């Protein structure tokens, strides 16, 4: 049986999969359900400071799904590329209730799962206050949410709007918090690595990379935003590549552990995050759409795959892909001696390749695709698009 346990900033996790701060971790009972289902840890919903207590009351309803029901196979087959748009700012609890809830969660899960508090202040004084709240609890660790995608739009000096203050915030938290903390970063900054380095230098024990982006959707009949009328958190499994890019860039530049988050949908995505350097991996959207039981499926998937490969410990895979990532400058260009060809027996004459070939290199003859090698650019679009796998790359 492969060893899935990891150490994350001094906190032992029986496996690296953490339920991210979101609705599935909104209170102690919810956090217990996540740990019962197999998650190695939970990040509680963020506690905002009293100055942002508006965020403790959400618009209702507060979730919109785009591209979910619209998936042709729905409901038997679930879409992978959909958007979850939401405005669920923070924990509904005030300071005392939050502290009590964290303690209740720890009491319920014990050593089976790490309970990670999450805080977001709007001034340095408020960050100190929030550290005091967490210090009075049994939390194993704390996430410092400098990444909320819509806090700035609430007029608050917090979340993604405070990304420039990351080192100062990390310093205040480092001075005031008694347990390890991970700074949760937003990708909505010009230089994520610089922010990550700043947080590390200021005393962060770990980094959580990266939060969702913000977005808005317009209903064309009313010319108004869909839902509650403002921007909201915007994301989905399609952000996986964005998250992997962020983690790979940060993990190779810092010495503290990184927790990967954004876009996880299947167990392979968790392995992908580990391979780009993540010590632990979080998920919110997949838990919300697939339920807590997804943790068991992911654990079985990872375990079975590792057994098949003969891998003994997941920590041995950490960063395995980093050495294989090259800079865009170093990519091999215009390689010689490659071309594409259609396997006639497999071609069903659907024409998908024809509509997406911008070099006039493919046409249907007698119901089969034929490629003009002189015109073909070997761009690869038909290879990717063909529904039957009839197009092959030949060397
Ligand atoms: C409904 C919802 C509520 C969220 N609430 C919080 C929060 O309170 N604090 C926080 O740091 N992140 C919050 N997040 C962000 C998630 O923790 C996570 O970073 C993000 O959704 C990306 O991961 P995913 O692609 O697995 O969903 C929330 C996300 C969703 C969907
Ligand atoms: S590889 Fe690109 S250029 Fe060549 S036939 Fe396919 S789509 Fe056209
Ligand atoms: S997309 Fe594939 S199956 Fe369809 S016409 Fe082209 S080669 Fe044939």
From TrEMBL:
InterPro entries linked to this entry: 4Fe4S_Fe-S-bd (IPR017896), 4Fe4S_Fe_S_CS (IPR017900), Aldolase_TIM (IPR013785), Dihydroorotate_DH_cat (IPR005720)
Top EC category: oxidoreductase
Gene Ontology MF annotations: dihydroorotate dehydrogenase (NAD+) activity; NADP binding; uracil binding
Ranges where the 4Fe-4S ferredoxin-type domain occurs: 338-364, 367-395
UniProt pathway: Pyrimidine metabolism; UMP biosynthesis via de novo pathway; orotate from (S)-dihydroorotate (NAD(+) route): step 1/1
GO cellular component: cytoplasm
Keywords per UniProt: Oxidoreductase
Keyword hit for Oxidoreductase: yes
Cross-referenced Pfam families: DHO_dh (PF01180), Fer4_7 (PF12838)
Domain of life: Archaea
GO biological process terms on file: thymine catabolic process; uracil catabolic process
PROSITE patterns listed in its UniProt record: 4FE4S_FER_1 (PS00198), 4FE4S_FER_2 (PS51379)
Enzyme Commission number(s) from the entry: 1.3.1.14
Catalyzed reactions per annotation: (S)-dihydroorotate + NAD(+) = orotate + NADH + H(+)
Family the UniProt entry places it in: Belongs to the dihydropyrimidine dehydrogenase family.
Quaternary structure annotation from Swiss-Prot or TrEMBL: Heterotetramer of 2 PyrK and 2 PyrD type B subunits.
Function: Catalyzes the conversion of dihydroorotate to orotate with NAD(+) as electron acceptor.
PANTHER family on file: DIHYDROPYRIMIDINE DEHYDROGENASE [NADP(+)] (PTHR43073:SF2)
UniProt-recorded name of the protein: Dihydroorotate dehydrogenase B (NAD(+)), catalytic subunit
């Amino acid at each position: 049986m492969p060893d899935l346990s990891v150490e994350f900033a001094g906190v032992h996790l029986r496996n690296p999969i953490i339920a991210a701060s979101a609705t599935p971790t909104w209170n102690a009972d919810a956090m217990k359900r996540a740990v019962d289902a197999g998650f190695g840890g939970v990040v509680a919903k963020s506690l905002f400071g009293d100055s942002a207590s508006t965020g403790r009351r959400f618009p209702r309803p507060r979730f919109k799904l785009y591209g979910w029901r619209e998936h042709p196979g729905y409901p038997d087959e679930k879409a992978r590329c959909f958007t979850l748009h939401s405005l669920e700012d923070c924990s509904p609890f005030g300071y005392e209730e939050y502290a009590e809830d964290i303690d209740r969660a720890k009491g319920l899960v014990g050593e089976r799962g790490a309970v990670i508090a999450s805080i977001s202040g709007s001034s340095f004084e408020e960050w100190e206050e929030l550290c005091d709240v967490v210090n009075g609890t049994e939390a194993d660790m704390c996430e410092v949410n400098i990444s909320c995608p819509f806090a700035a739009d609430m007029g608050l000096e917090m979340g993604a709007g405070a990304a420039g203050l990351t080192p100062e915030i990390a310093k205040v938290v480092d001075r005031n918090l008694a347990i390890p903390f991970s700074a949760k970063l937003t990708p909505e900054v010009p230089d994520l690595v610089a922010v990550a380095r700043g947080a590390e230098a200021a005393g962060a024990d770990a980094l959580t990379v990266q939060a969702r982006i913000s977005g808005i959707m317009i209903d064309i009949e009313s010319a108004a935003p869909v839902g509650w009328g403002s921007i909201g958190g915007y994301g989905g499994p399609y952000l996986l590549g964005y998250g992997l890019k962020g983690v790979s860039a940060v993990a190779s530049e810092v010495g503290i552990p990184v927790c990967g988050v954004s876009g996880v949908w299947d167990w392979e995505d968790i392995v992908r995050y580990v391979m780009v350097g993540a010590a632990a991996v979080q998920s919110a959207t997949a838990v919300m759409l697939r339920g807590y039981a997804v943790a068991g499926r992911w654990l079985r998937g990872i375990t079975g795959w590792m057994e098949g490969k003969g891998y003994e410990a997941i920590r041995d895979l950490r960063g395995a892909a980093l050495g294989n990532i090259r800079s865009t400058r170093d990519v091999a260009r215009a390689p010689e001696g490659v071309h594409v060809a259609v396997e006639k027996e497999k071609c069903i004459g659907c024409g998908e390749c024809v509509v997406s070939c911008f070099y006039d290199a493919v046409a249907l003859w007698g119901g089969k695709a034929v490629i003009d090698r002189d015109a073909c650019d070997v761009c690869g679009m038909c290879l990717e698009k063909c529904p039957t796998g009839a197009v092959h790359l030949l060397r």
